[in-house]
Amino acid sequence: MSAVASAVQTESGSLVEAVRLREHEFDRLRRFIYERAGISLAPHKRQMASARLQRRLRSLGLRSFEAYLRLLSEPNQHHERQHLVDLLTTNETYFYREPVHFEHLQELVRERDRNQACRIWSAACSSGEEPYTLAMAMAETLGMGDWKVLGTDISARMVETARRGLYRLDRVKRLPTSWLTKYCLKGVRVQAGNLLIDPRLQARVHFEQHNLKQPLPHEPAFDIVFLRNVLIYFDLPTKQLVIDHVTRTLRPGGYLFISHVESLHGLQNGLKMIRPSIFRKPPI
Q1: SS3 146
Q2: Alpha-carbon distance 66 to 215, whole Å?
Q3: What residues are labeled active site?
Q4: How far apart are CA 12 and CA 32, in angstroms?
């Protein structure tokens, strides 16, 4: 069998033959996810796409990707199109990722007037670990002052997970111990092995589904935007579009954080780099 026509294991442990994902079918899926989410799936991602979609095809009782593509094209299948986006977008994340960013965030916040409102946007929040880490950093720095965090993601499934604020204990192993003690509730009995973000902290974090190819509704102004580990999935035109939307939401003097593995090279943005991966919008 080829790399995209093999056996897969069901939840019961039995092996079933995978539905073959042909090259032209994968090309159509690539076009769909690019047009829908701006994500450029490389040709070598065909096996990954096939593996992620096998269970969905079985659930729908479909015996080919051609049939699945026909289903996606039906006007009333918005839910299924969103489901496909959920399955094909990468959601790798964890608490306290790239710690130096949170340390610098706290430095910036300490320099502000403690009575001044602070609004932060986690613009590709996945399952919520980043915005909750941001909330912990803000609580450490400002207590329960006037600050809020918005987390957005294109995946409806990830947004729902984030709203629950419930995680496996192994997801927080990088958190400072004091933060873990202050802001997380350890599960007991049926929830043993899990933790819940403290409801007082959850109340400061709002989650919405949002496609970064579109401007944020109402264009609220943010003091800080975290746009980390997402630009790497876009081609240059889509990166420019996303950066245009994001920088428009920044207040003059506001800050943009990207991942250390990303760059704004080749993008028109009007931002000044203050240190690697951290940029500032010029004050008025």
Answers
A1: coil
A2: 33
A3: 52, 153
A4: 32
